[in-house]
Design brief:
Blueprint lengths: L1 H10 L8 H37 L3 H29 L13 H23 L3 H5 L3 H36 L5
Amino acid sequence: MGAVERAGTELARRTSRRSFLGRLGRTVVAIAGGSMVAVALALTLVAAFPVILDRIGLDPVAAGFAQAARWALLAVLVVIGLSVLYRLGPDREQPRFRWVTWGTLTALGMWVLGSVGFSVYVSNFGSYNQTYGSIAAVIVLMLWLYLSALAVLVGAEIDAVRERDKDVTHTTPDTR
């Protein structure tokens, strides 16, 4: 998580003024703690929700709506997590908190499309099991985490550029 904080600060073209203990506290408590809660909720939605639906025995239409609501809730959870990460990660002076930004929407879209595309690739074209054997699952997970981190950083870059553009337009005198 410290790497995400450093990357966000670099993308914002700032130098970190936080002390080691300040960075550690923010990283461990805020970002890592929030990440653990988000992962627990995501695992519940992804792994436990289908089992609960089977046990309840809903009709197909209601089950379809419940499945759609599950994925929509997961997308909202990702947007909230990214918003908090983009707010707390970079070392900036008094950043405004926004629930939805162009960066969070771009990161969400890249993450969803990248995950679906990577899943299709691994299922149909990749021969990871033949090549890597029992370690294939770890390699696929690491590649997916890399793609996810790339999507998060692209979203952070978009927000940083938009923030820099706003800073420039608000500090430049009107030349009419």
